[in-house]
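Still learning. Any example?
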Amino acid sequence: MHYYEIEPENNTFKTISIQTTYMCQLKCSNCYLGDMLNNPKYPNIDIDKFEDVMKRLKGRCDIRFIGAEPTLNKDLPKLISIARKNGHRPSLLTNGLTLRREVYVKQLKDAGLNMLGLSMNGGLDDEMYKVFDNGKYAKQKMQALENCFKYKLLPHINVIVDPSNVKVLKPLLDFIIEMGMKYNRRFSPVTFPVMLRLKSIGQMGNYMKTKTFSLAELAEIATDLFKSTDTIPGELDDLVFQANVNGYSETRSVIYKMNTPNGTLLGKLTDWSVDEDGVPDSGSQRRGILTDNYKIAPFFEYYKVELEKLENEK
């Protein structure tokens, strides 16, 4: 495993994740944080040090606020505004429970947030949320997604897929289309690129010991979803795959396009299977993370190093 740290002014990564907090109100079956989750050893990000990094970063970066659950950090709106003020593009990766409150969604929008990733592993199905996220969260997450459309926060809907929850994809897709049409948010790869992201299980931290789909198997699932969706006109050729993500040629992710009655929906497939070192997406040139000593490191390699430290301390 190749692990390294660089100063912010020497950054080479397009996307930099910010470990906003290690606290979470859920205990999901799949969480790469493992023993780092809700661990008091790892504090919330220091807002002054964060602002210094934003000023020093080389070029315009995609700043992704992650957790555990980033909305549990009370400073999140201010962090978003700092990233935006320094010329970067803030986004958010969330379980969505806090976003069921309209006033909070509006607060994030006013701070400068335009897009987020929303975890919906159970789709609209509470029984699947009980398996994947250890609770019934369908209603809250559906409200969160609706609030995103209402306040024009571009949603990327994330689903970790194994054989048990493939069935949630069709109803979820229909709901995404319904919300887009309800709020007159027409899908477009240019003006409003709503995305449905299917991911396999990554065997790092805490994870379900079921099946990790390969990229080819995820492509089959996406193709079957397209064919079985009677609200979507067109031929199978309308589902177009490309292995270019934000200008980076990748072997573990592909983008696809799907024609819907509400415009062109984007999709992304990601294979999180691990290499011989136990690292998903190893050697990524696109995905970095701000470390706890405020340097930049490869994303999953950073967590692997930290998890090994915790294991050695036991």
Q: What stands out?
A: The chain is about 30% helix and 20% strand. The two ends are 22 Å apart (CA to CA). The chain has one domain: 8-313. Confidence is low (pLDDT under 50) at residues 230-240.
